[in-house]
């Protein structure tokens, strides 16, 4: 039996995670050996690799037909590009309802209609006397207060009509719902039903009776209650067909009054229809103060009366225009991806259809427009119009009896009137929801206008869940706390208006409060809308406090985050009182440098990470002060991942400051180099070439002060050496930098000689730095190490022409041509690309302070998954940079948390096979160049590495991913990221705390064949481990820094040395995985191909033995000896070699 | 299962270690503590008639599968019981020519980390080879008397070795550069002598250094010339002047659109296959 299938069986048997399966399934396809690769590529090409298109000349240049020309012209005019057109068509196909299903739904609707008409009527009884209701049915309404006048009896509806998107043909899959309006007969309703929720209670009783009868019908699979648009006064009945069609459709029944039953003038936003005397149970106030208006209550009644007329309007507008219907469907998808359409006050599909109708009426949209154009126009309109200030109206009449727009603005935050001029369609939409819509529309417009990206994918196919879209998120729980907040904020009229829904009542004031408090720190504040509940008909409707938590998302302004000061007015100004009131005890009088004495609030924050969390302090302070919400009811999610970036001793900083200190010393040193006297050539440029110098080193370096007794001393070379009897000394990685010299014709033109001259420069540099600045230096042939204030820098002298000289090849004719050699490529990468990248990313950090945190978290995670060796430092930095430079459809992250989530989502969803990741550093690539890069990428795909990252400096070859990852490692990372993302998001969105945030950072170990356990004694970075050990070994450092006369031990990391040896010896047989940040275990995975018995060949005996197998002599890896070699080669470091699987048994 | 396998190996040992035709297998272990062993596959070094080989015939032993912890010195010690060893050369893969013509500077060419290697062992007498071919194992790389460093010991000593002596480096650089300068000076001298002097067929060599320097003979230079020519020609051409040119441009545009359309269709096909159109 071959080894590979054995392995699979064993894996299946042990029940290991499915995670690893595909990664090594892929082995056969992509192949490690060159021979199998060729086959693999052709195979996978057939599956899912784009190929350059080949059309024959005849096909390309044949006469065009009229039809073709028309289509091409249409594409040009109506769509952005032909690709977009095809994509839109495909998407619509996917979300549209098929004709076949429509027929089935129609049949079902007909049945429903019949059944409803047959529901028997009941005798008349008082509204409060609900004894006639059969047991097992609960009224879907919070009847508070219970007593109300009026009587009710059931009669079958006068009219049953289908309303809404199904009729218009704009409904989208999944979750098809059909809205049915049941017009209640006049006889049920009474004159004064408008008052004190009487109408709504009758409506609820009507539904309850209906539900009881329909529930007994075998036609329906489920009969449940829900709320219309999440409004708790208006229950609706959900009917789903029985059997296999259950998921097909949901029919929602909405009872409504005859359209002319209520007098419209009673329902203006300024009128009151819920009497305080009744609602609060008090006698009418003596002072004759009028009852407060109830605009929302009135709107909900009006909505019911206008169902028919709205449908009429929409079918008139959309009816004969397929383009508009497409547009509405696209907009619905757009809203849904942004979680904007659901719940009370959501921007529903109905609203967007009405908006399209409005734009048609104002001639901004024409009925011949395509879906894409409709989408664009609506987004453009939303982006540029602020409905919170300038409301719009569909009403054409100039009847003076109609209320003015200003009246509506008084009562509602967002105003969009229907054709009657009395109903505000956006009554429940809060200002923050509308601002969020506007913000999204603005982002989408810029995306559509830029021609570079795949707008379609980002606009319509990328979900934007709150946790991934907002920098910080906070949960308010339990929701019952908001009831107290309503009292504290004196929101009784709003409560009366909302029928006791304290969440909607308090939402507006709370968001305004926080927006004011966060001020310049905030870009956008959004809130979640409580999900629309559904419940069984024999249950009470869910209480307000049961609707989960209220989640607020904060989009932060990076510029505002840098300040700790909230500057108020001058002390003698009248606004000062208001300021003091707003900030309470936090506000204090301060004298400023310009002599002004002002009110001010100062937050204590020393480091960037603390400054980032100032919003947390602001929110808890304000909520406690103004809304009586104590801080244990606020769960703020913003800094949980910071712990993974914090060093052992410091918990107040995530390391940006420490990196800045190192960079500061680097700047000092480069100034010294520039001013150095006595070098044969002067220094022309000094460039950084190390992650520290671009803020992406996971653990920033600290100044070292070695304790000499801990080391062997090599006095004559001023160096310390590690000692055998002590634990491994602290790991000091030199910070590398490149030093360019002025041009000169004196350099030799031969590679070997150049090396010698460079070495001479290194020696001279060391000598001069020692003489002129008293620095401790150590020169080798390739670099000079300099100890400066506890940091070690490694200076490399570079000669610009050296890569070119290494490339020169002389043909037999004497022609000199340039050919890349591995050595020249390496040199070019280290002395040209790396410094450029380092300075570009350093610049990026200045623009986006969160970059450092994101890049380091990302690297930390990849390394913690033991995959760090497969990915170069720079490639991961570039992926992190892409999140900032190409954040679409989001905005650039302002906190490490959200950046890391987007990193995971980018890694797990990016199609590396068919796309290069273009990282447009400094915005140097134009749109045309990017298009060109994409097309040349396709042509050269097979020659490029698995993961291709393009930067303006490196447009073709993707230098940073040339040496890896391999297809398997990348695939493994993709799988791990796809698994980690939902886990982490769920943890962070859990309102009761994230639990163990390190869960996703712990690697799965059960996939490895052999585990090599190491002694912590010889792991210098042991304390950096994800689960930091409580105790580790002394690493020979003194606590107090001081001058040192000996060079510390540099870059001595036994696990890395061990790994290098293992890879050199057994690289053909196995893969080795290790977390360089304090990993205690090395994972070994045998390559499945290496266990194929091979015929004897002199060149492939490495580590193999000859075995006679069925009479033939074949080569097989000598596993037992190799396992013992693992222990021999790591003597002193290796604790145990644990062979876990028996995949290798032959 | 490990145990079972071990038993089988033990069984093999009794029957004699299997070795490929022409080779003889010698078990080798790091020290007496190890239980399983690697196998050196050895044979006399022979080459086909007429092939040049740097290794002396008859006296050279060709060794395959030398473990990474076994260096030249070690191999010498292990094989010296068979006869006096003249030299040992370890290489990454079998190679007929003796590779290191001149000793490379340790400052500029650090030795790579060894994997499994092959070795050419030259004995003083041919008898050494034949004795080696009957050698009974297992050979022990590290013994009480001659311990071989591995693990932490090795890394610490490697680290100590890597701390270079700047003086030695300076001396090495100076000597090399002196020799290099002399070499260059001699070459220039020679070039100067030859300048303008026709060779026996009457050709005069034209160099960069002459009175009228010529274009360097590089690929880049010749490409540049070609490019310039092309641009010159393109400038003279008239675009969209004749009706047929006009027609052709239009057709060309259409063809471009068609090609783009085809590409897009392929893309869509792929996305559909990957179910990229499920929005949620």
UniProtKB/TrEMBL annotation, chain B:
<keyword id="KW-0539">Nucleus</keyword>
<dbReference type="InterPro" id="IPR024326">
    <property type="entry name" value="RRP7_C"/>
</dbReference>
<dbReference type="Pfam" id="PF12923">
    <property type="entry name" value="RRP7"/>
</dbReference>
<dbReference type="GO" id="GO:0032040">
    <property type="term" value="C:small-subunit processome"/>
</dbReference>
<dbReference type="InterPro" id="IPR040447">
    <property type="entry name" value="RRM_Rrp7"/>
</dbReference>
<comment type="subunit">
    <text>Part of the small subunit (SSU) processome, composed of more than 70 proteins and the RNA chaperone small nucleolar RNA (snoRNA) U3. Interacts with NOL6; required for NOL6 localization to nucleolus.</text>
</comment>
<dbReference type="GO" id="GO:1902570">
    <property type="term" value="P:protein localization to nucleolus"/>
</dbReference>
<keyword id="KW-0963">Cytoplasm</keyword>
<dbReference type="InterPro" id="IPR012677">
    <property type="entry name" value="Nucleotide-bd_a/b_plait_sf"/>
</dbReference>
<dbReference type="GO" id="GO:0003723">
    <property type="term" value="F:RNA binding"/>
</dbReference>
<keyword id="KW-0597">Phosphoprotein</keyword>
<feature type="domain" description="Rrp7 RRM-like N-terminal">
    <location>
        <begin position="22"/>
        <end position="82"/>
    </location>
</feature>
<dbReference type="GO" id="GO:0061523">
    <property type="term" value="P:cilium disassembly"/>
</dbReference>
<keyword id="KW-0966">Cell projection</keyword>
<dbReference type="GO" id="GO:0005929">
    <property type="term" value="C:cilium"/>
</dbReference>
<dbReference type="GO" id="GO:0005813">
    <property type="term" value="C:centrosome"/>
</dbReference>
<dbReference type="GO" id="GO:0006364">
    <property type="term" value="P:rRNA processing"/>
</dbReference>
<dbReference type="Pfam" id="PF17799">
    <property type="entry name" value="RRM_Rrp7"/>
</dbReference>
<dbReference type="GO" id="GO:0034456">
    <property type="term" value="C:UTP-C complex"/>
</dbReference>
<dbReference type="GO" id="GO:0005737">
    <property type="term" value="C:cytoplasm"/>
</dbReference>
<feature type="domain" description="Ribosomal RNA-processing protein 7 C-terminal">
    <location>
        <begin position="162"/>
        <end position="280"/>
    </location>
</feature>
<comment type="function">
    <text>Nucleolar protein that is involved in ribosomal RNA (rRNA) processing. Also plays a role in primary cilia resorption, and cell cycle progression in neurogenesis and neocortex development. Part of the small subunit (SSU) processome, first precursor of the small eukaryotic ribosomal subunit.</text>
</comment>
<comment type="similarity">
    <text>Belongs to the RRP7 family.</text>
</comment>
<keyword id="KW-0694">RNA-binding</keyword>
<dbReference type="GO" id="GO:0001825">
    <property type="term" value="P:blastocyst formation"/>
</dbReference>
<dbReference type="InterPro" id="IPR034890">
    <property type="entry name" value="Rrp7A_RRM"/>
</dbReference>
<keyword id="KW-0206">Cytoskeleton</keyword>
<protein>
    <recommendedName>
        <fullName>Ribosomal RNA-processing protein 7 homolog A</fullName>
    </recommendedName>
</protein>
<dbReference type="GO" id="GO:0032545">
    <property type="term" value="C:CURI complex"/>
</dbReference>
<dbReference type="InterPro" id="IPR040446">
    <property type="entry name" value="RRP7"/>
</dbReference>
<dbReference type="GO" id="GO:0030054">
    <property type="term" value="C:cell junction"/>
</dbReference>
<dbReference type="GO" id="GO:0005654">
    <property type="term" value="C:nucleoplasm"/>
</dbReference>
<dbReference type="InterPro" id="IPR035979">
    <property type="entry name" value="RBD_domain_sf"/>
</dbReference>
<dbReference type="GO" id="GO:0000028">
    <property type="term" value="P:ribosomal small subunit assembly"/>
</dbReference>
């Amino acid at each position: 039996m071959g080894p590979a299938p054995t392995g699979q069986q064993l894996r299946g048997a042990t029940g290991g995670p499915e995670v690893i399966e595909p990664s090594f399934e892929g082995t056969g396809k992509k192949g490690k050996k060159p021979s199998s690769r060729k086959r693999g590529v052709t195979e996978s090409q057939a599956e899912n690799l784009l190929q350059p298109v080949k059309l024959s000349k005849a096909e390309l240049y044949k006469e065009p037909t009229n039809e073709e020309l028309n289509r091409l012209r249409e594409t040009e005019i109506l769509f952005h590009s032909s690709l977009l057109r095809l994509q839109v068509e495909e998407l619509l196909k996917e979300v549209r309802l098929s004709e076949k299903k429509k027929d089935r739904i129609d049949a079902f609707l007909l049945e429903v209609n019949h059944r409803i008409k047959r529901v028997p009527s009941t005798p008349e009884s008082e509204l409060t006397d609900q004894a006639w209701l059969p047991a097992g049915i609960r009224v879907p309404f919070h009847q508070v207060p219970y007593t109300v006048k009026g009587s009710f009896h059931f009669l079958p509806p006068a009219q049953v009509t289908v309303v809404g998107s199904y009729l218009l043909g704009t409904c989208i899959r999944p979750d098809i719902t059909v809205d049915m309006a049941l017009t209640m007969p006049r006889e049920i309703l009474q004159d004064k039903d408008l008052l004190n929720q009487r109408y709504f209670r009758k409506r609820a009783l009507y539904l309850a009776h209906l539900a009881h009868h329909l529930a007994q019908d075998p036609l329906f699979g489920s009969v449940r209650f829900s709320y219309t648009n999440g409004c708790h006064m208006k229950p609706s009945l959900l009917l789903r067909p029985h059997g296999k069609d259950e998921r097909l459709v949901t029919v929602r029944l909405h009872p409504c009054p005859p359209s002319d039953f209520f007098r419209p003038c009673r329902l203006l936003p300024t009128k009151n229809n819920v009497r305080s005397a009744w609602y609060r149970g008090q006698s009418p106030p003596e002072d004759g103060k009028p009852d407060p208006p109830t605009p929302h209550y009135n709107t909900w009644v009006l909505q019911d009366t206008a169902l028919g007329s709205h449908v009429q309007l929409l079918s008139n507008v959309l009816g004969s225009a397929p383009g508009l219907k497409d547009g509405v469907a696209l907009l619905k998808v757009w809203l849904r991806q942004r979680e904007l359409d659901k719940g009370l006050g959501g921007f529903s599909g109905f609203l967007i259809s009405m908006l399209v109708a409005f734009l048609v009426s104002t001639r901004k949209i024409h009925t011949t427009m395509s879906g894409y154009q409709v989408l664009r126009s609506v987004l453009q309109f939303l982006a540029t119009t602020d409905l919170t200030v300038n409301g719009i109206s569909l009403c054409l009449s100039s009847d003076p009896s109609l209320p003015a727009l200003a009246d509506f603005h008084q009562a509602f935050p967002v105003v969009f009137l229907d054709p009657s001029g009395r109903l505000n369609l956006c009554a429940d939409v809060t200002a923050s929801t509308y601002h969020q819509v506007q913000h999204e529309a603005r982002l989408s417009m810029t995306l559509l206008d830029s021609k570079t990206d795949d707008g379609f994918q980002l606009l319509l196919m990328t979900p934007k869940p709150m946790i991934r879209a907002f920098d910080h998120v906070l949960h308010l729980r339990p929701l019952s706390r908001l009831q107290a907040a309503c009292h504290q904020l004196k929101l009784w009229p709003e409560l009366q208006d909302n029928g006791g829904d304290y969440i909607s009542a308090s939402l507006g004031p709370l968001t305004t409060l926080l927006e004011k408090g966060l001020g310049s720190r905030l870009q956008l504040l959004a809130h979640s809308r409580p999900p629309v509940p559904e419940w069984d008909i024999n249950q009470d409707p869910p209480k307000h406090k049961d609707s989960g938590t209220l989640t607020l998302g904060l989009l932060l302004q990076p510029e505002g985050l840098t300040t700790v000061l909230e500057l108020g007015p001058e002390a003698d100004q009248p606004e000062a009182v208001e300021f003091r009131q707003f900030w309470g005890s936090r506000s204090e009088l301060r004298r400023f440098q310009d002599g002004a004495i002002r009110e001010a609030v100062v937050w204590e924050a020393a480091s960037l990470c603390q400054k980032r969390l100032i919003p947390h302090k602001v929110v808890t302070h304000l909520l406690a002060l103004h809304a009586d919400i104590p801080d244990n009811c606020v769960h703020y999610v913003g800094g949980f991942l910071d712990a993974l970036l914090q060093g052992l001793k410091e918990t107040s900083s995530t390391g940006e400051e420490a990196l800045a200190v190192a960079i500061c010393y680097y700047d000092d040193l480069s100034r010294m180099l520039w001013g150095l006297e006595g070098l044969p050539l002067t220094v022309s440029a000094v460039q950084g070439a190390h992650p520290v110098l671009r803020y992406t080193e996971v653990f920033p370096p600290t100044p070292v002060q070695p304790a000499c007794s801990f080391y062997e001393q090599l006095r004559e070379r001023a160096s310390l050496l590690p000692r055998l009897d002590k634990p491994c000394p602290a790991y000091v990685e030199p910070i590398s930098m490149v030093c360019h010299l002025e041009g000169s014709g004196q350099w030799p033109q031969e590679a070997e000689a150049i090396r010698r001259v460079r070495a001479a420069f290194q020696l001279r540099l060391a000598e001069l730095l020692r003489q002129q600045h008293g620095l401790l230096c150590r020169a080798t042939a390739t670099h000079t190490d300099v100890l400066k204030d506890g940091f070690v820098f490694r200076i490399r002298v570079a000669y610009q022409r050296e890569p070119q000289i290494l490339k020169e090849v002389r043909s037999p004719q004497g022609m000199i041509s340039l050919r890349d050699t591995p050595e020249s490529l390496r040199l070019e990468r280290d002395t040209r690309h790396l410094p450029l990248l380092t300075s570009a990313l350093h610049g990026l950090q200045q623009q986006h302070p969160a970059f450092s945190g994101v890049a380091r978290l990302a690297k930390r995670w990849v390394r913690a998954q033991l995959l760090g060796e497969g990915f170069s430092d720079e490639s991961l930095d570039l992926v992190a940079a892409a999140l900032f430079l190409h954040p679409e459809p989001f905005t650039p992250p302002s906190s490490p948390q959200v950046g890391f989530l987007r990193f995971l989502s980018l890694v797990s969803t990016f199609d590396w096979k068919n796309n290069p990741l273009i990282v447009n550093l400094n915005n140097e690539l134009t749109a045309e160049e990017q298009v060109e890069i994409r097309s040349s990428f396709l042509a050269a795909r097979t020659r490029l590495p698995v993961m291709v990252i393009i930067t303006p400096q490196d447009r073709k070859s993707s230098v940073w991913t040339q040496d890896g990852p391999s297809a398997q490692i990348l695939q493994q990372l993709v799988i791990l990221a796809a698994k980690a993302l939902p886990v982490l998001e769920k943890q962070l969105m859990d309102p009761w705390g994230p639990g163990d945030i390190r869960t996703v950072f712990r690697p799965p170990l059960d996939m490895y064949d052999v585990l090599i356990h190491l002694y912590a004694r010889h792991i210098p970075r042991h304390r950096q481990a994800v689960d930091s050990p409580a105790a580790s070994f002394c690493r020979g450092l003194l606590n107090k820094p001081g001058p040192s006369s000996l060079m510390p031990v540099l870059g001595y990391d036994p696990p890395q040395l061990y790994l290098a040896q293992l890879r050199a010896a057994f690289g053909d047989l196995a893969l080795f995985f290790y977390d360089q940040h304090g990993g205690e275990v090395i994972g070994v995975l045998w390559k499945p191909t290496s266990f194929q018995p091979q015929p004897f060949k002199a060149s492939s005996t490495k580590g193999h033995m000859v075995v006679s197998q069925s009479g033939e002599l074949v080569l097989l890896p000598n596993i037992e000896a190799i396992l013992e070699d693992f222990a021999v080669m790591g003597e002193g470091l290796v604790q145990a070699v644990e062979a876990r699987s028996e995949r290798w048994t032959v | 299962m490990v145990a079972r396998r071990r038993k089988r190996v033990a069984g093999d040992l009794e029957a004699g270690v299997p070795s490929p035709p022409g080779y003889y297998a010698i078990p080798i272990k790091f020290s007496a503590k190890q239980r399983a062993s690697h196998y050196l596959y050895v044979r006399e070094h022979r080459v086909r008639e007429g092939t040049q080989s740097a290794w002396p015939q008859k006296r050279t032993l060709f060794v395959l599968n030398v473990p990474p912890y076994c260096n030249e010195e070690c191999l010498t010690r292990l094989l010296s019981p068979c006869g006096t060893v003249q030299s040992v050369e370890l290489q990454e893969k079998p190679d007929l020519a003796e590779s290191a013509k001149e000793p490379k500077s340790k400052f500029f060419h650090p030795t790579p980390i060894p994997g499994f290697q092959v070795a050419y062992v030259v004995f003083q007498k041919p008898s050494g080879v034949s004795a080696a071919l009957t050698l009974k194992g297992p050979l022990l790389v590290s013994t009480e008397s001659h311990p071989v460093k591995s693990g932490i010991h090795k890394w610490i000593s490697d680290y100590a070795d890597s701390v270079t002596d700047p003086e030695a480096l300076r001396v090495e650089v100076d000597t090399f550069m002196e020799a290099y300068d002399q070499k260059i000076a001699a070459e220039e001298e020679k070039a100067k002598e030859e300048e303008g002097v026709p060779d026996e067929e009457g050709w005069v060599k034209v160099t960069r250094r002459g009175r009228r320097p010529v274009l360097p003979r590089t690929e880049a230079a010749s490409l540049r010339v070609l490019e310039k020519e092309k641009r010159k020609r393109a400038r003279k051409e008239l675009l969209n002047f004749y009706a047929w040119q006009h027609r052709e441009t239009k057709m060309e545009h259409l063809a471009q659109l068609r090609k783009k359309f085809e590409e897009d269709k392929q893309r869509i096909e792929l996305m559909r296959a990957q179910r990229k159109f499920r929005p949620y």
